Amino acid sequence: MQCPDVVVASLDTNSFQSKQTVHVNERSGWSPAPAGFAPSADWQTEQAADFADIRQKLAHHRSKPGKEYSTKLALPRKSDSMGWCQFCLGEQIAMKIFGRKDNKKTVNDEKALEGSNLQTTNQEGTPPLLSVLLQINQATLLQVLEYHVEWLEEIGFSHDQGKWFYALLVCLEKPLLPETTSLLRTLARLCATLRASLVFYSTD
């Protein structure tokens, strides 16, 4: 009599639970889309094509020699997260984010916000125009993207921040650094979590 290729023993594993030292979480960490919010395959293909087209147009624009802008903004320093928050999203959102972090807002925080070099911005922030994006080098752009991920986790999604996310992702240069890839995974998980909290209201 020939033995089968695969033999599985029937064991009672309850006796081993007290000796278990490692627990493996089989969950992927991704929150499924609720009913009514799952994008169709056609929609995903269309968005990916539009995104690739915009990246190509940006690359073509960057390749033009001698492209200068008459008006240069005074951008915040790379390490000035509060300044970038006010620059991108406006003073009100910046005060909300940096005022609620651990409920530890200090006089120094207020002075830092007031002293940010953002005289050229308004109360509502600066939109991610092409003339603005081309003045941000890649190292600073990656740092600003990381700031936006932190702000998304802090106060949730807004339409204005969505514009900045899209623009920053368009400007990312390849090959991506491992840290950038990890950051994009974090962003995707946050977006999936936010999407899972949405409620679909039928118009029927």
Automatic annotation (TrEMBL):
Q: Which gene encodes it?
A: gemin2
What is the species of this protein? Stylophora pistillata
Q: What is this protein called?
A: Gem-associated protein 2
Provide one Gene Ontology biological process annotation.
spliceosomal snRNP assembly
Would you identify the family this protein belongs to, as annotated?
Belongs to the gemin-2 family.
Query: What InterPro entries does the record tag this protein with?
Result: Gemin2/Brr1 (IPR035426)
- Any one Pfam family match given in the protein's UniProt record, by short name: SIP1
Any one Gene Ontology cellular component term annotated for this protein: nucleus
